[in-house]
């Protein structure tokens, strides 16, 4: 068990610190399904590697960075620029494991907006038009990340998560939008609770994983 952990850490550290190459799991053009930009066209770049360990994570195949090829960022940018959509969502895995400065600067230089989905477990790198912070109990955000969040999106897995969500809402900036999103496996049970909670606490908004209802990536 310990040995496996050691191998995983080493693999993350083999990614060049200058951000010139990143472990790319997949990239796809779709509709942003969640949060404040729901319904808008976006090119998703999913980077491999995550050490947060959410037991309900819907993309566990991303966790092992070594399973995903180190890819030059020029290649990633070139492919992204070929799509009509002018917004890119960098997700993972946990994208803030890596230096995202060069990737985001090259995207913005091509007139592409840069959005990120992050747990905030590591400090922010890169230049961002929209930061979605989705904090996790399993590895809490680095305190430096809260002021940068445009959107706080808390996954609700059980009733106690509402109180936990409020603790994080107290840490973000005044203009940060607040979202509650049902954990997909418990959506039938949690969505009605979220609806009631938002009616009683209208600073919050509902976020659903609409791509899953539409059966698109
Ligand atoms: C797969 S994560 C990758 C980015 C980053 N590691 C994070 O957690 O924010 C992308 C988004 O999906 C959410 N998510 C993951 N699994 C989920 C699930 N089972 N139900 C609802 N949302 C989920 C995360 O909270 C996050 O907002
Ligand atoms: N359509 C779509 N919207 C998303 N929003 C956040 C996603 C993610 O996995 O980060 C995601 C995703 O995987 N697909
Ligand atoms: S932080 Fe994100 S990618 Fe990592 S386990 Fe949690 S939901 Fe999955
Ligand atoms: Mg997803």
Would you identify the CATH architecture? Alpha-Beta Barrel
Count every beta strand, where a strand is a DSSP E run of 2 or more residues. Answer: 9
Mean pLDDT across all amino acids = 95
* CATH uppermost class: Alpha Beta
- Fourth-tier CATH superfamily name: Aldolase class I
Proportion of residues in helical segments: 25-40%
> What radius of gyration results from the CA coordinates?
17 Å
Largest sheet: 9 strands, mixed
Poorly predicted runs: 1-10
Shape: globular
Number of domains: 1
User: Helical stretch count?
Assistant: 6
Could you characterize the architecture of this molecule?
The chain has helices spanning 2-13, 73-81, 101-109, 161-169, 187-200, 210-214; strands spanning 21-31, 41-47, 70-72, 87-92, 113-118, 130-133, 151-156, 177-182, 204-206. The protein is α/β, with parallel strands linked by helices and 217 residues long. A nine-stranded mixed sheet has the order 3-1-2-4-5-6-7-8-9. The protein has one domain (21-214): Alpha-Beta Barrel (TIM Barrel), CATH 3.20.20.70. The structure holds S-adenosylmethionine, the ligand Nc1nc2[nH]cc(C(=O)O)c2c(=O)[nH]1, iron/sulfur cluster (SF4) and magnesium ion. Ligand 2KA binds next to strand 1. Pfam families: Radical_SAM (PF04055).
